[in-house]
Design a protein that fits this description.
Layout (H helix, E strand, L loop, with lengths): L11 H8 L5 E3 L2 E3 L6 E6 L4 E7 L3 H15 L9 H17 L1 H12 L3 H23 L6 E2 L12 E9 L2 E5 L5 H15 L2 E5 L6 H13 L6 E3 L4 H9 L6 E5 L2 H13 L3 E5 L4 E5 L5 H13 L9 E7 H16 L19 H16 L3 E4 L14 E4 L6 H4 L6 E7 L2 H8 L4 E2 L1 E5 L3 H7 L7 E4 L14 E2 L2 E2 L4 H6 L2 E9 L1
Parallel strand pairs: 7-8, 7-10, 8-9, 10-11, 12-13, 12-18, 13-16, 15-16, 18-19
Antiparallel strand pairs: 1-2, 3-4, 5-6, 6-22, 11-21, 14-15, 17-20
Helix pairs in contact: 1-4, 2-8, 3-5, 3-6, 3-7, 4-5, 4-7, 5-6, 10-11
The structure holds 1,4-dihydronicotinamide adenine dinucleotide and magnesium ion.
């Protein structure tokens, strides 16, 4: 299927959006080009063709966006809305996103390479539900009252004491390219529910659905400046944004390396910071389970979204007597997985997002080979157009190897046998990361023995990468600080003020 032949199959809103070719970004309720007039090419990773141009924002654009967010927060119309007004706006946004779900998913597919059907069923559906979940939280923000027992006040003195939860201020939201819309929504929804204003910077590889979301935000009726969207790269736009004195809180999802950089910048002025970073999540198969089901689960855990998932199950541990069987099954699944572009209904896996990621992932496979890994399936680039990599299974690896220790962020699985639970718990925890882990077993005793021993923000049992709007998600160790999703997420956009009134 030739990609240019399928444009007429796109939903009208997607066609109309892509016809524009040169896009603008959203600052203070207006759609603007970059101050310096520079633009960024947006590529379709399935065929390397340019599908759009977006503004390449610089420090002046970022400053204008932060000023607009500041005005909206410091006494502008956004700051005067009541919780129920914010709730209504968020619900309207969710409805609009639902109406245009197919168009948004199709643009996501062309921009990122992922399947349009999956983008609609997972990325967009989850975004809609999370906006609705957070709309509910907007009217559930509450402090506490306490009867005071101030030790050094005279017993006869009376105080009224209570706490207020107040929006933290202007939020800088910086998101990556693997789930472009969903990551943007995971920052925006709690920030807006809390009453913060936002400057969002999508990843330079995948800026398009953030701009579509900006249009829906304006259609929903969010006041000017409540959400500003600047498109640009890390050094040119991300760095001035995180370093801006007008930003009170930074919420970042991306690499551990960039996360640490941003964390240091935040500490310089004690800006609040939430970091959702990389992972190297273990999939632990116990020898009491059905090997075919475990293999199917393990394949899904690594190959979903082409392995470009922060909690991808990239290290497979199988109890020794089942190792050969499970690993052979995973390799067989990998070998028969059809690759193709995201609008091809027959494709089960699409391209990686960029040439940079293609080089990076192939570089890791080579490093595995050099360190003695055996390649059971895949092992190289697929085709010569588009950033496709064959789903790859590596065995004969050990724990010191780079392919076992470092985040590859592609469809590459390392598989290792183990003998007992003590050993696998130790190995599972033996990376700098701690984002997720899954256990495959029907033995409740062994499952419960393992759960508390895994140093990870989420543990799945007989499933992997499940997310729920109401369940907190985030990392232990170098996988990050703080939580997205769940009630915990809105807490990160709220300050607590204690009030004492002498009565
Ligand atoms: P990155 O972490 O550098 O980029 C993520 C976002 O941060 C983008 O919006 C980027 O423009 C921005 N950014 C980059 N440098 C910045 C800076 N100095 N200041 C402020 N913002 C900055 O990730 P990149 O380079 O795209 O991918 C490299 C590796 O990171 C991947 O191979 C993967 O291992 C990991 N990664 C992890 C993700 C996750 O969800 N945990 C998502 C994306 C990448
Ligand atoms: Mg980077």
């Amino acid at each position: 299927m030739n990609l240019s032949d399928i444009h007429h199959l796109l939903a009208p809103r997607a066609q109309e959006f892509l016809r524009r070719d040169t896009h603008r970004m959203l600052i203070d309720g207006r759609w603007v080009a970059a101050a310096e007039g520079r633009t960024l090419d947006v590529l379709n990773p399935a065929n390397e063709q340019c599908i759009a141009h977006v503004p390449l924002a610089g420090a002046a654009d970022v400053d204008a966006a932060v000023q607009a967010a500041r005005r909206a927060f410091d006494g502008g119309p956004w700051s005067r809305l009541r919780p129920a007004d914010r709730q209504r706006l968020l619900l309207r946004l969710a409805d609009l996103l639902q109406t245009h779900a197919q168009a948004v998913a199709q643009v996501e597919s062309l921009d990122n390479g992922k399947s349009a059907a999956i983008a609609e069923a997972v990325d967009v559906a989850m975004s809609i539900d999370y906006i609705r979940f957070m709309a509910g939280q907007a009217t559930a923000i509450a402090g506490i009252t306490r009867d005071a027992s101030i030790p050094f006040a005279p017993p006869s003195a009376q105080f009224v004491t209570f706490t207020r939860r107040e929006a933290v201020g202007v939020v800088a939201a910086i998101v990556p390219w693997n789930f472009p819309l969903l990551m943007a929504v995971m920052k925006l929804a709690p920030a807006l529910a809390a009453g913060c204003s936002v400057v969002l910077k999508p990843a330079e590889q995948t800026p398009l659905t953030a701009l579509m979301l900006g249009e829906l935000l304006m259609e929903a009726g969010f006041p000017d400046g409540a959400v500003n969207i600047v498109t640009g790269d890390g050094p040119g736009a991300g760095a001035p944004l995180t370093g801006h004195a007008g930003v009170d809180k930074i919420s970042f999802t991306g690499s551990t390396e960039t996360g640490k950089l941003i964390g240091r910048t935040a500490m310089d002025r004690l800006a609040r910071v939430t970091l959702e970073l990389g992972g190297k999540s273990p999939v632990i198969v116990l020898d009491d389970c059905d090997p075919a089901a475990a293999a199917a689960g393990a394949a899904q855990a690594i190959f979903f979204n082409h392995g470009q998932v922060c909690c991808a199950g990239s290290r497979l541990y199988v109890q020794r007597r089942m190792f050969d069987r499970v690993v052979a099954d995973v390799a067989a699944i990998a070998k028969q997985m059809p690759l193709g572009h995201g609008l091809d209904p027959a494709a089960q896996m699409g391209p990686l997002v960029s040439q940079e990621q293609l080089d990076r992932v192939c570089g890791y496979i080579e490093s595995g080979r050099r360190e003695g890994a055996e390649v059971l399936s895949g092992g190289r680039r697929a085709g010569d157009k588009g950033y496709f990599v064959q789903p790859t299974v590596l065995t004969n690896v050990n724990h010191a190897h780079r392919v076992v220790q470092e985040e590859i962020f592609g469809p590459v699985l390392t598989a290792m046998p183990y003998d007992d639970l003590d050993e696998v718990a130790r190995q599972a925890n033996d990376t700098p990361y701690g984002l997720g882990a899954s256990i495959w077993s029907n033995n409740l005793t062994r499952v419960h023995q393992l759960i508390p021993r895994l140093r990870a923000g989420t543990v799945w049992v007989n499933c992997h990468s499940m997310l729920d709007p109401g369940m907190p998600f985030g990392g232990y160790k170098q996988s990050g600080i703080g939580r997205d999703l769940g009630r915990e997420a809105i807490d990160a956009y709220l300050e607590t003020k204690s009030v004492f009134i002498a009565a």
